[in-house]
Amino acid sequence: MITFSIISAESIFSIVPLLQQLNSSISEETMKLRLNEMISQGYECVGVFKKETLIGISGLWIRTQYYVGKHIEPDNIVLHPDYRDQKIGRQLMQWIYNYGVSKGCVASELNCYVQNERGNGFWKSEGYEIIGHHYQKKFKD
After folding, report:
1. What is the tens place of the pLDDT at every residue in 98-136?
2. What is 2-125's CATH topology?
3. Exposed, middle or buried, 13 (CB in 10 Å: 0-12/13-18/19+)?
């Protein structure tokens, strides 16, 4: 049985092993420092559980921007490889959409790397439209 629930701030470091699947170049210490800061800025994370085992996550940001209004942004979505291609991602997204609506959101927006062909295909199948480019300028390394 697969379940979904918000991971408490006290348990947020349980997501680090899954985050490291996305970017192993970021140290565990740095991830924990950033997670603490993110929590203070309103970050939430939904966990995907099979029984008691955390098998997936999605960060969540709820924001309001003038061009779209209040919306939910899924962020850094990871599902353990053993559980992919079982429609769990679609179940997770439905949970996120329902959660966003319960918080007064009128839309969902997200970022996906251009080279992530599988991810881009998934988002298009979920009804997302590409509306812009995501740019980044680092101030220092």
Report:
1. 999 999 999 999 999 888 898 899 999 999 999 998 898
2. Aminopeptidase (3.40.630)
3. middle
